[in-house]
Amino acid sequence: MTSHRCAWVTPGDDLYAHYHDTEWGVPEYDSRALWEKLMLDGFQAGLAWITILRKRETMREAFDGFDPEIVARYDDAKRAELMDNPGIIRSRLKIEAAIGNAQAYLDMREQGLDFSDYLWDFVDGKPLVNRFETLSDIPTNTPLSQTISKDLKKRGFKFVGPVIVYAFMEAVGLINDHELACPRHQAVQAFTR
């Protein structure tokens, strides 16, 4: 697979290659996993995705497995602990956003809105399959990512701009943006329910 991976994968970087080959673009339907991935994409703002991949396990540990029930109740002591943790992205704004986003996630659930169903409804339950040949063909945002971003913000989410949302949509398989020559373009479609 190495000769035709998507161009964004850094050659020789095993972590990036593994993420591309096993996770990126595979449709995710678990609400909690989707929330975690959206939070990680928010933490990525202004950084390279490989930075998040290298810190992901430490961030999962620091954020209690990205359990929204726990994150929503973080107090000042926990906030200070996070800011002192060199293994995570130590941005006060991003940490506060994750806490507020956990509260927004729980508010949606209290209203009877499943986070997975909410997101998949934007694409009528099936991944949108793009047919891009090169990395330069792939947009950084679309009218759909703008719509989702606007709706998430209306619900109280932060660090969910249209570029972040588009990257999230690619990562969780709401859209298939593997380049046409990449073997994963066809492979991820087998994971659609």
Task: Chart the SSEs and their pairings.
Elements: H1 14-22, H2 31-44, H3 49-62, H4 68-71, H5 76-83, H6 92-110, H7 115-121, E1 128-129, H8 143-154, H9 162-171, E2 175-176, H10 183-187
Parallel strand pairs: 1-2
Helix pairs in contact: 2-3, 2-6, 2-9, 8-9
Structure at a glance:
With about 190 residues, the protein is mostly helical. The protein has ten helices and two strands, in the order H-H-H-H-H-H-H-E-H-H-E-H.
Key descriptive features of the protein:
globular, 2 strands, 193 residues
Order of helices and strands: HHHHHHHEHHEH
Number of helices: 10
Integer average pLDDT: 95
Q: How much helicity do the residues have?
A: 40-55%
- Rounded Rg: 17 Å
Q: Which structural category do the helix and sheet elements fall into?
A: mainly alpha
Range of strand content: under 5%
Low-confidence stretches: none
* CATH C-level class: Mainly Alpha
User: What sort of overall outline do the alpha carbons produce when their principal axes are compared?
Assistant: globular
Return the domain count. 1
Q: Using the 3D structure, state the CATH architecture.
A: Orthogonal Bundle
Distance between the termini: 25 Å
- How many strand segments? 2
CATH topology: Endonuclease III, domain 1
User: How many strands, which pairing sense, and closed or not: the largest β-sheet?
Assistant: 2 strands, parallel
CATH superfamily: Hypothetical protein, domain 2
